[in-house]
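User: Can you recover a sequence for this backbone? Please restate the input before giving your answer.

Assistant: Of course. Working from this structure:
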């Protein structure tokens, strides 16, 4: 193993995690608050020795992500610690939406049911355990909105300080959610990519001493939280992998980790090794991965975001090349939809299934619709589409058409007149 950086965890409990491994060259490192390989600068991810894990062991666990603690870099007693206990969100059988799109076995994985109403609670809860192990006292992040709220809430529950950084032009609701938990909230005049670069600089400065940046120096652990979406979907489908799944792309990490989760379930014998296709979804105003996929490129060229889907507005997605590999390997695709298509998809999902998605959910449902109409999606296959956040956080996207169907006097005659036709 390589030299230990500052705040290396010694004699702490990371459960089945045994090392960090470079995704590019395979170099291995002791578990620590590092995220890039010292040899090739490739991204590091957690390596495990799982041992034996059974469906019965998992089912005996709590109704949150800690039922999968034997597959995560967390201690066995993690459920007993003060944390948000996210996960085990609903997998809706979307019969109405499926009927409208011509899909016979469609599901919506609705992660708006998490404590701060987005999937970010999953990843942050894993990062909190790493921060505790490394002795960090402040939890931090760069964020397009949802992550800032999740970090603020998780830090408050864990008894840690928090300081989160966001682009200053985020949706008002997300700014409110990020600020209410009592930590520091700093708006940066610039894009998310500029915010992220600033946070990378802060890590090396004395001002950032003992700070755990969940999506920078704690990123290998943080990213593992997305695997729990794969675990839950498979378990909720009766321990089988969906044949098709549509996942939003911001950094691309969620998509790559869901794929990793499926592969782990297969390797452990928890599900049958059946083919599955992964489809990535982007907003047209920030679609560098989609553009690379359509052009047949392996390199993702950065763009300047311009879309209402601000939670996906990462112009230089770190995991973009790996998303391309997965989409091509599984026979999936990467597609994008315009802002008007996003709004229409938000309304479609709400009207058919009673699920009010934020703009990222509009992107996934919009891409599902687009690919179905193009004949890319198999209408007979079990298909899952992700909604990763709550629509109340992005009201601006649908507010222009939000008005009463009618305004009447309080009388039956007025009601009959208004709705006579």
């Amino acid at each position: 193993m390589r030299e230990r950086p500052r705040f290396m965890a010694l004699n702490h409990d990371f459960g089945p995690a045994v090392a960090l491994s470079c995704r590019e060259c395979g170099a291995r490192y002791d578990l620590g608050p590092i995220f890039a390989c010292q040899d090739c600068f490739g991204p590091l991810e957690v390596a495990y020795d799982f041992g034996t894990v059974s469906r019965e062991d998992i089912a005996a666990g709590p109704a949150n992500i800690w039922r999968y603690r034997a597959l995560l870099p967390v201690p066995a007693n993690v459920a007993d610690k003060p944390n948000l206990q996210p996960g085990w969100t609903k997998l809706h059988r979307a019969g109405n939406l499926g009927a409208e799109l011509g899909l016979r076995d469609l599901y919506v994985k609705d992660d708006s049911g998490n404590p701060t109403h987005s999937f970010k609670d999953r990843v942050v809860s894993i990062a909190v355990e790493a921060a505790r192990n490394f002795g960090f006292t402040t939890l931090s992040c760069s964020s397009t909105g949802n992550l800032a709220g999740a970090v603020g809430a998780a830090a408050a529950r864990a008894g840690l300080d928090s300081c989160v950084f966001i682009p200053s032009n985020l949706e008002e609701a997300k700014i409110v959610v990020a600020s209410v938990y009592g930590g520091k909230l700093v708006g940066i005049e610039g894009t998310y990519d500029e915010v992220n670069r600033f946070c990378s600089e802060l890590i090396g400065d004395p001002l950032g001493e003992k700070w755990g940046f969940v999506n920078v120096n704690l990123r290998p652990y943080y990213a593992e939280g997305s695997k729990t979406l794969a675990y839950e979907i498979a378990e909720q489908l009766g321990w089988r992998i969906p044949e098709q799944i549509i996942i939003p792309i911001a950094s691309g990490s969620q998509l790559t980790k869901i794929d990793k989760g499926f592969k782990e379930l297969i390797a452990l014998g928890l599900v049958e090794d059946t083919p599955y296709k992964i489809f990535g979804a982007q907003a047209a105003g920030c679609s560098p991965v989609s553009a690379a996929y359509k052009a047949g490129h392996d390199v993702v060229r950065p763009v300047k975001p311009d879309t209402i889907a601000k939670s996906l507005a990462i112009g230089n997605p770190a995991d973009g090349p790996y998303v391309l590999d997965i989409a091509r390997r599984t026979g999936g695709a990467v597609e994008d939809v315009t802002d008007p298509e996003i709004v229409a998809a938000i309304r479609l999902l709400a009207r058919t299934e009673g699920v009010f998605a934020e703009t990222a959910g509009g992107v996934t449902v919009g891409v599902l619709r687009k690919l179905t109409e193009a004949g890319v999606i198999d209408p007979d296959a079990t298909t899952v589409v992700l909604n990763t956040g709550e629509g109340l956080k992005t009201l601006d996207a649908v507010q222009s058409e939000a008005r009463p169907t009618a305004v009447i006097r309080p009388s039956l005659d007025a009601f009959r007149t208004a709705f006579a036709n």
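That completes the design. The longest strand covers residues 161-167.
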